[in-house]
Structure formats: C-alpha cells, structure tokens
Amino acid sequence: MIYLQLFWTYFKIGLFSFGGGYAMLPFIQDEVVNKHNWITPSDFTDIIAISQMTPGPIGINTATYIGYTVTGNVWGSIIATAAVCIPSFIIVLLVSYYYNKYKNSKLVKSVMNGLRPVIVGLIAAAAIMLINKTTFINYGSWIIFALAFILIKFTKIHPILVIILAGIAGYLFY
Amino acid sequence: MNFYLDAFLTFSKIGAFTFGGGWAMLSLIEKEVVQKKKWLSEEEFVDTIAIAQSLPGILAVNTAIFIGYRLRKIKGSLVCFFATTLPSFVIILLIAMFFTQYKDNPTIISIFKGIRPAIVALIAVPVFNTAKTAKITWKTAIIPITAALLISFLGVSPIFIVLAAIVGGIIYGRYFDKTTKTEKP
Lengths: 174, 185
Fold this sequence. Notes:
The complex is a heterodimer of chains A (174) and B (185). Chain A is mainly α. Chain A is built from eight helices and no strands. Chain A is flat, with a radius of gyration of 20 Å. The two termini of chain B are 31 Å apart. Chain B is mostly helical. Chain B folds into two domains: 3-135, no CATH class; 136-185, no CATH class. In chain B, helix 1 (3-17) packs antiparallel against helix 2, helix 2 packs across helix 5 and helix 3 packs across helix 4 (59-98). Chain B is built from seven helices and no strands. At the A-B interface, helix 1, helix 3, helix 4, helix 5 and helix 6 of A face helix 1, helix 2, helix 3, helix 4 and helix 5 of B.
C-alpha cells in the first residue's frame, strides 16, 4: 500500500530530522532513494534544485513533489506533506503548553539562557554553509550579497523587496 | 481586521517568499511578526527560534506552529501552519504536474543566480539582531562563534550543540547563576 508507506516514511522524516532545511536532506535521501527506490538519485538532485528555486521549506517541497511523483495524484502530495508535519504539530504543541506553564521557573530560564547564545551561532552556521560555488559564482554575487545585507540590516526596506530586486539583478546580469 | 485572517495573510506572505528554507524565513518573520505586527517581542522571537530549532521537524513549520499557539492556542497554530505551507504546496504541486522542465529554463536560472547571494544576506542579518537580543558581549561571543565553527567546518550535528547548550545552561543556572530566580506568576 503505497499511501501508507508514503505516510510512514514522511512521518519518520518529520519525527527524527533535526536542524531543519538542508540538514534534513541526507535523511530524506536515505529513505526515498536508497530504501524505497521511489525516485532515482538524479531525480532527487532535481528536486533539490527545484526546491531551491521555489519558496517554502525544503522539507515540505520534497514531500509535496515526491508524493505526487510516486502516486501520480494529488493525494500522494497531501499525505506526504501532512505526514512530515504531524510530528511537529504534536511535539510543538506539547512543548508550547509546558513552556507557557513553566517559562518563569528557574530551570526553563536556565535552559533558555544556555540556548540563546548558541542559536546565534546556529544561524551564522546556516549562512556560512551557503557560501559555496553554487551560491557565489563570481564577484557580482558578492556585490549582491553586500547590497542585500546593507539594505536589510540598515534600512527599513522589506526583505521580500530585496529578494525581488536580487532576482531582477540576476536576470539583467547573468 | 479579523485576527485569523490577518495571521493567515501574514504567514502566507512569509511562506510565499521564503526561498532558502527556514533560516531565510527568520528575516521575514522578524519584519512582519516582530516589527510590523508587534505580535512578539525581540526576546520572544529569539526564544521561539531557540525552541523551534531544538525540536525535530521542519524549522519553518515548527516556528509557525509555535507562534500561532502563543497568539491564539490551537486555532492560531493551525492557521499559521496552513498559511505557511499552502503557498509552497500549491507551487510545488503545479511544478510536479506541469513544469518539471522549468529548472532548465535559462531565464529562471539567471534570476536565481541573483537571488541566491541575497538569501545568504537574509540569513546573515538575524545573526546580528539575535546577538543583540541574546545580550552577546565580546566575552560571551566565544559561544556562538564556537557553535558556528563546529557546525560549518567540522560538520558537527546541530542537535549536539543544542544538547550541550541545554546542559550548559542548566549547570550554569544551578551552580553559578545567583540572579535568575523562579518567578511566581
């Protein structure tokens, strides 16, 4: 039963993948390419490429895309996408409930005091790991990066507008 | 405007323009949810990321559910969740159905060559804003720097960094920190 397999596989991905985004990819690849042979490795690379070019979380993108490709209909997409989010829903709601209840306790405050500085490092790592040859193809890329950084950090311009401007720059210069 | 409609529009806007995954979404959330709508303070925003990141699953989804729950309990979390995921779901479904070749289109390729470095900037800006909120000083900067280096250059899984931070926070709170106290609500 393909739908059940799809549901179970994506449920597991949602439950066990930590770190979000690209940290999830090896896990997804192991399940859908190596274990189930639902798609070929080159299809998987294509899905990543498409995910990078479309908005939205990469975990959702692969679920929607693979769900459709494997079953050939929309239900596959819906089931895979729902399955990858259900664990988050349960876990985040439970944690939210207890966090709101105990956020004034010393233990929770100490945990948050430990986490806060590390989160800054985690975000920095997410940015550093994108500094590669696919993202920065030449000096122009660095100019776009610098301008985008200055605009978002020091002006009131909306980040969405910055993305659109960068897209126009790409269309004009590449 | 009705709160749920407002939240739905805000989060679907965030979902529709989040290129580059959950981390790139942070700048947008900060702009919309913290600065424009003032639904969260800067501190709450950092705590939200800290919690959403420490749990398994998709960061963007976790963040949306967490913020939704904070604002209007379960109903709020459902609204924020659907709003965040719907745009990408629809777009990917259409691509899977009709345009599998679109990734080879030269115009699309050019546009994304421009967008990709801007995404890195989008992720880099919250580093500085959250550092300020987390009250990072020159002395404590060693913590985020070490975390970033371990993950990006040594390939250490973020989950170990998060666990170490939780343990470190508890030990520091238990033995060294005399100022933090349990508050009775």
